[in-house]
Amino acid sequence: MMGSVTVMMAMCAAALGAPWQPEQFPIGYWLGPPPEANSLQTWQTVADCNFTFTGPRGGYSVEENLEMLDFCQQAGVRALVTDSRIHWQMTANEGWEETVAEIIADYASHPALYGYYLKDEPNHQLFAPLGEMSREFERQDPDHLPYINLFPTYANVRQLGTPTYADHVAKFLETVQPRVLSYDHYALLRAGGMRPDYYENLAIIRDLGLQHNTPQWQIILSLAHLAYRDPTEAEMRWQVYTSLAYGMKGIMYFTYWTPPSLAQEGRYGIVDGEGRPARLYPIVQQLNSEIRALGATLLGLTSTEVYHTGEQIPAGATRQGTDAVVRVPEELPLLVGMFEDKAGELYAMIVNRDWENPVELQANMATHVAGVAEVSAENGSEAELEMTDGAVPLELPAGGGRLLHLSTEFDYPQPPRPRTEISFQFDDGGDLEGWSPGHSLGSAVVRDGVLTMAITGDDPYMTRSFLRLPPDAVSVVRVRMRITSGNDEGQLFWGTAAEPGFSDQRYLNFAIQPDGEWHEYEVPVGEHPKWRGQKVQAVRLDPTTGGAEEGARVEIDWIVGE
Predict the structure, then answer these.
(1) What is the tens place of the pLDDT at every residue in 27-51?
(2) CA gap 20, 216 in Å, rounded
(3) Residues 347 and 406: beta-carbon distance below 8 Å
(4) Which pairs count as long-range contacts for 286-290, CB under 8 Å and 24+ apart, including other chains?
(5) Cα angle value 146/151/153 (rounded, 5°)
(6) What pLDDT score was predicted for residue 2?
(7) Which DSSP symbol is given to 143?
(8) Contact 116, 83 (CB under 8 A)
(9) For the CA atoms of the chain, what is the radius of gyration?
(10) To which H or E segment does residue 81 belong?
(11) What does the DSSP assignment read for 180-246?
(12) In degrees, to the nearest 5, what angle opens at C-alpha 186 toward C-alphas 182 and 214?
């Protein structure tokens, strides 16, 4: 068996030091079936709940672990093995690397192996030996995960061994260099409400995980114990979707199996103390199905931003900014996680932070969002959503979320091409031909050979710079336009090489008819002493000097010089 492991190690050497890259979104648990329940039916129940791997559970011998792996393979699920030979003190023993090799030789060739459980919630003083262990397992078997889990924010300094929680996580990442950054946080309190640092914990893990290019996992509550209550269906959904919105790349539950002492008190995990599905089993089964469907997309995304709305913004959270690509109502308790894929495509997960009430909302998209599709939580496919005036209507169940794929289009303005003549026909759809609607003109559109603009205030005008007109090349400027309202006079200003700005010394008035009909107008610029003999560099057209009614518009067919 060692020979096959050696070959595998050589083939996978390129993976050393890389972040964990699973084929499926990691969905696991803590406290699985005990050794006496080690049967095909037990592990089939796990697989039927849509878990992708089984989590840590002590007490198994090597033979029982191998039997478990056989059952897991038949059921279609993989397993983290817990082996008594793996402990943080092992690095103090001479030749401990050979022990790692023996463990790997026992399990690594089994197709159902997911990884090796190393330690839960270590103090800072254990980071150095755990780092040695983790890297040795990775060096000898880069295909399988060496797994360690961290404390939550509410651990004390004695437990952490560091002055702050953020320092604890940063030191762990720097010292251990893990392939995943896993932690647990149980937020739902028996006395009511939630821990105030739940979102802060998510933010710290997200931020430091991104800095170190390490996928982040969260372990959520599925068992009433100590000060924690029995979660409702909506509270389970809330834990899952808030985790996904913060960019978590793995979800685990505490616990799957129910300890006998808690079963006697009527408290149950996902299955009871005999392995029978309990109240949460169908709820978790459905949530895991949704995670698997969305996870196929989420695994390829990078979290770029997370922000909140509502009357109260949670501790450690960021309020929605004015420049948000996806804007949701400020008064609703919502969470938006923004993502980007390798091609630069944008995604948004919108979550209802209220686990008691569903919500309806309008999600308003930035102007460069051309379309919105939803990634189905049923099968991972995409379906276009209706967007009207940049708004998408959404309904969210209590604690629920939806993943959106945003299609974006934006043409960054380029400097206008220099022109040695005045000849603007507006024949190319969308091309303003270098004209800028600079004042009291909006919604400029070129369509069907016409430039159309709304008049939004007094003194509307548009400018065209980057002209290079030779002296006296143009003596008349002609304009064909129609305007629905305004004063009966237009103006043409210009700037020259000698006097580049627009001023009252360089303009001509011309009479117009603001009747909504097409008319051709002639501006005899060659008669003006400030035009004759000058190199003209810019022109400004005021289609009317003011007085337009609300809702008025101007349309220009062409502007030419002769």
Answers:
(1) 999 999 999 999 999 999 999 999 9
(2) 10
(3) yes
(4) 287/236, 287/237, 287/240, 288/27, 288/49, 288/50, 288/51, 289/50, 289/378, 290/240, 290/377, 290/378
(5) 140
(6) 34
(7) T
(8) yes
(9) 33
(10) strand 78-81
(11) SEEEE---BBTTSSB-TTHHHHHHHHHHHHHHTT--EEEEEE-S--TTB----HHHHHHHHHHHHHT
(12) 15
Residue (of 71, 74, 101) closest to 85 by Cα position:
101
With a CB cutoff of 8 Å and minimum separation 6, the contacts of 488 are: 511, 512, 513, 514, 544
Length of the chain: 562
Q: What is the pLDDT of residues 269-296, one digit of tens each?
A: 999 999 999 999 999 999 999 999 999 9
CB 301 within 8 A of CB 339: yes
For the chain, the maximum distance between any two Cα atoms, rounded to a whole number of angstroms, is: 104
pLDDT in tens, 413-444: 778 889 999 999 999 988 999 999 988 998 89
Helices (H), 350-454: none
At 425, give phi and psi (nearest 5°): -105, -20
- Give residues with Cβ within 8 angstroms of 335, minimum separation 6: 242, 245, 306, 307, 308, 350, 351, 353, 401
Count CB neighbours of 362 within 10 A.
14
Structure confidence at residue 445 as a pLDDT band (50, 70, 90): very high
Q: Which secondary structure element, helix H or strand E, spans residue 135, and what is its range?
A: helix 127-140
The answer to whether 396 touches 353, Cβ cutoff 8 Å, is no
Q: Which residue has the tokens 């002209």?
A: 467
User: What count of other Cβ atoms lies within 10 Å of the Cβ of residue 328?
Assistant: 23
Mean pLDDT score of the chain, rounded to an integer? 95
| Side chain identity, residue 553 | R
Q: What is the rounded distance in angstroms from the CA atom of residue 254 to the CA atom of residue 110? A: 26
Q: What is the dihedral of CA 541, 544, 548, 551, to 10 degrees?
A: -40
The amino acid occupying position 132 is E
Round to whole Å and give the CA distance between 78 and 72.
Answer: 6
Q: How far apart are CA 33 and CA 255, in angstroms?
A: 10
Closest by Cα among 184, 176, 44, 28 to 114:
28
Closest listed residue to residue 85, CA positions, set 61, 114, 53: 61
